[in-house]
Input
Amino acid sequence: MSSLTLCLPIEAGVPINMSEADQMNPGSNAATEHWRLTVSGLHCGNCAGRVERALKALPEIESVSVNTVSGQTDVDASDDLTAAELVAAVRQAGYEVVEHTQTLPVSGMHCASCVTRVEKALSAVHGVHTAAVNLASETARVVTIGEVPLATLRQALAKAGYASTSDAESGSQSTSTTAAPARSVLSTDTWQLWLAIALALPLVVPMLGMPFGRHWALPGLWQWLLATPVQFWLGWRFYRGAWQALRSGSGNMDTLVALGTSAGYGLSVYQLWLHRADSHPPALYFEASAVVIALVLLGKWLEARAKRQTAAAIHALQALRADRARRVADDGSSDEVPVDSLAVGDRVIVLPGERIPVDGVIVEGHSDCDESMISGESLPVAKAPDATVTGGAINGAGRLLIRTTALPGDSVLARIIRLVEDAQAGKPPIQRLVDQISAIFVPVVLLIAIGTWLGWGLLGGDWTTALLHAVAVLVIACPCALGLATPTAIMVGTGAAARAGILIADVAVLEQVPTLRTVAFDKTGTLTEGRPRLYEQHGLDGDILPAAAALQSGSEHPLARAVLAAAAEAHLSVTAADRLRAIPGRGIEGWIDGQRWLLGSASWLSDEGVSLTALSDDAERHAEAGRSVAWLAQFDDESWHLRGLLAFADPPRPEAAAAIAALHRDGVRTVMLSGDNPGAARVVATSVGINAADVQAGVLPADKATAIERLRSDGPVAMVGDGINDAPALAAADVGIAMGSGTDVAMQSAGITLMRSDPRLVVAAIDIARRTRNKIRQNLFWAFIYNVIGLPLAAAGWLDPVVAGAAMAMSSVSVVSNALWLRRWRPPLEAQQKAST
Output
């Protein structure tokens, strides 16, 4: 990961232009730019050499200097070099560049072409790696190589004709603007909408009598007086947007509306002047231009209200963050302090009914905590001393004293918000098609409108009618719907998933999940409860629990916790073994009283030359009963000696069978990948409904990724796991699904994270991903169909400009409203269970 700033004797991270550089260094090349990267993962001079060689391979590079200690890398290159090329070169060398993410609100966007223009403007800023714009949330997420100042980004936006409010002043990760400005904007839009309707209504009411043979209309001067403020005051936003688009050499929805309504208004003014002696001149179309503007304003107003609902999940998560906490001092006194001022290790009091302000461990007190908004768990969770609590949860009836274990910015809630925001800012692969179409949409519509005008005028000779048909073409076009189709569905879908405890971190999985053919499950902690207990021990020379506990002391493995819990129940005093070394997937090695001991799998001890014959019958009995077995051996007198075995019981999760059955009903094959012995794995698989032929036992962590690759030959594969050992397999799968009870490593390797250790959430994750993908496709269908049908009808003269304006206004509303249906989604298996009870 990297940090790109211009390396000059000025403040680091502040880009400067070449004229300033030349003044500071008169001999410099005006076509040369200086980059300063921070490369992570450098350990020695060889590392630095690899990075230098990788960068010098780029033809634009003139010089490279790498500092191994700090990772700082200075690069001089021609101004043709981009940040993306630098990052790619460093990654190819096997290292990462520190990147910075900034999110800022963008105002003035109306359609897909606006999105494209904003992304191009931001991507052109020196130091910007990528820029992704979300039209639904009206935000831009910018990844920079180094700290590019917000002022620079805003300047680029202003140059493109857009503005950024001050909500992102600090470069915060938050993607949402505050509620107050949103309400203020909506309030302004509301009165402007009602005023436009009030002024346009007298123009359109007389037209209602035309089907009944009544041809009454307001005098021409009155029509002009009513239409003019609608056209140039209430419709000024369209002129402003069109001008800004024109300045940047592109077009957008504002361009189409401004051109279309101006043509109708201008034709009417011409007719009014031409027949100025007549109080009711013919061929006035003031009502068309005024009503079109009023209808477009109505569509934008409805769209804005709907878009606010799409961000409801993020707003709800942000509302969980407490502002203040009751901190306890060393002398026992307490005072309220801002949550941001807390440090790890601080003690905090939480009274009944209050929201827990921080992640921590309970020091004193018993209570029940409502964690539904974080994990999706509907029932309160019992909490006692030494239990962990999550910031944002609501304390029940007990008073709790909590020791802080994470800073607010690193809390579970903060990570959840970041994951959801990242997903909502992302673009699935299907969006590339939309981006390509939006880039040419407005020019194509303008060409169709010109062709319509010329065609009708030349063939029919009635240039007035030809102009009205061209106006209809301009106002029926729906670039807004194209821009909203994908982001609204993603925002609502990922928000609904987050409420159920499903975090979709990578939106690309939305297109991969519906095609899944196989779901591979880890066993321990995924299909089983993950809290094994020591069922039985067999020692050949007495009690083996003290030695086993000494080897497992300090380990976080579930079997280690079971051994230590049994030692605590037996009131053993445990002293950690020396020179402990964990062998992933095999066991642990250590020294006790100067002698070497092993505790692990049968295959490992056999490879080390340990004979297991003495306890093979006991081991087989436990394996057939579905219990996991760990073998204990001691190196003594120049050879290995078997000392005993430990048998562990870890029952399947009660929800696992229902989840497996639901996957089978959907035509998805289920497979178990386990490092456990074949007997234990087979018993668990049979109890949850996985076919014995689909069980792969004794699989080492590195081999799990290989097994996933083999399964992919039959189609896309998802991997479900919860531990560090599962991380390679999660990364190798088409879709990685991590149980939230697992480790951060597993979560970072996965595209989907489940906040509860409930296998039914795997079914729910697949279901919501399918539904979200379907909504994206439905939205794109509606966005395209409006244009595919509407544009030819308008060009053929079968649509009045007023009808065309109404269709255009409602296209965006229909797309957003369709996406909002996802808010009604609930996890299918849990919904069925509630219905049955």
